């Protein structure tokens, strides 16, 4: 990504193309990560005075549709028999791959990593919609099982740990103490 992380003008340019970018993300059937990387880059920016409307628009328009959300973000599932963790990709029809069988050199692995990085970046939003939707497709018991699995890549474990930390713990520490 060639947008400087502190350049407000550059970070706001994708706002003019939101509809086109979001529609392309929904309809794309490949495992290319360009749009996920753009979303992560903009969402993780801590530029002073940045109103992150690109990130917020993604959450309020794209994430409200469960089918679209599952098409963009792979779903983690735990099989009843054996307890193995699977990743379900829904880009071009459903495809299940055991989490332990994902390899760094394969496109689905890179796509899954990019999707997990986006989730961590989106967690800065504090939108309740974000938390509700991701808690549905990434249940805590499945994430904990993935963290305890012996054959999982360290990079995957780190990102899953960050999701538990930033999605689940931040959800629990929303301003409920003021109610």
Secondary structure layout plus pairing:
Layout: H1 8-12, H2 18-27, H3 34-43, H4 53-62, H5 66-72, E1 75-78, E2 85-89, E3 95-98, H6 107-122, H7 128-137, H8 140-148, H9 154-172
Antiparallel strand pairs: 1-2, 2-3
What is the terminal separation in angstroms? 41 Å
Helix content: 40-55%
Strand content: 5-15%
Q: Order of strands side by side in the largest beta sheet?
A: 1-2-3
Tally of separate helices: 9
In short:
With 179 residues, the chain is mainly α.
Written overview of the protein:
This protein is mainly alpha-helical and 179 residues long. Helices cover 54% and strands 7% of the residues. A 3-stranded antiparallel sheet has the order 1-2-3. A hairpin with a 5-residue loop joins strand 2 (85-89) and strand 3. Helix 3 runs parallel beside helix 6 (107-122), helix 6 (107-122) packs parallel to helix 9 (154-172) and helix 8 (140-148) runs antiparallel to helix 9.
């Amino acid at each position: 990504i060639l947008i400087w992380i502190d350049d407000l003008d550059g970070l706001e340019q994708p706002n003019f193309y939101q509809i086109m970018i979001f529609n392309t993300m929904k309809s794309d059937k490949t495992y290319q990560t360009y749009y996920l990387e753009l979303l992560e880059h903009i969402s993780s920016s801590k530029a002073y005075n940045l109103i992150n409307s690109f990130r917020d628009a993604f959450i309020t328009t794209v994430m409200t549709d469960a089918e679209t959300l599952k098409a963009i973000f792979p779903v983690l599932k735990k099989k009843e028999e054996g307890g193995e963790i699977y990743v379900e990709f829904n880009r071009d029809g459903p495809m299940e791959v055991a989490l332990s069988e994902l390899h760094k050199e394969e496109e689905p692995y890179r796509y899954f990593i990019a999707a997990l990085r986006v989730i961590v970046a989106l967690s800065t939003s504090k939108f309740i919609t974000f938390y509700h939707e991701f808690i549905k497709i990434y249940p805590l018991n499945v994430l904990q099982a993935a963290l305890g699995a012996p054959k999982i890549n360290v990079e995957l474990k780190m990102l899953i740990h960050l999701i538990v930390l930033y999605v689940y713990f931040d959800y629990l520490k929303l301003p409920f103490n003021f109610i």
